Amino acid sequence: MLGARTLRTWAWLHKWTSLVCTVFMLLLCLTGLPLIFHHQLDHLLGNAVEAPELPAATPRVSIDRALEVARARWPGKAVQFASQEADDDRIWFITLSDTVDGPANLKQVAVDARTGQSLGEPPLDHGFMWVVLSLHVDLFAGLAGKLFLGFMGLLLLIAIVSGVVLYAPFMRKLQFGEVRRDRATRTKWLDLHNLLGIVTLTWAFVVGATGMINTWADLGFKYWQYDQMTALLAPYKGQPALTQPGPLQPAIDAALKAEPTMRVKFVAFPGTSFSSPHHYGVFMRGDEALTSRLLKPVLVDALSGRVTDRVELPWYLTALLVSQPLHFGDYGGVPMQILWALLDIVTIVVLGSGLYLWLARRTTAPLAEIEPRASGARA
Amino acid sequence: MNRGLAMWGWPVVLALLTAIGLLSALLGDGVWDAASWIALGIPTAVCLWFGWRGRRASKKET
Question: What mean pLDDT is reported for chain A?
Answer without folding.
Answer: 91
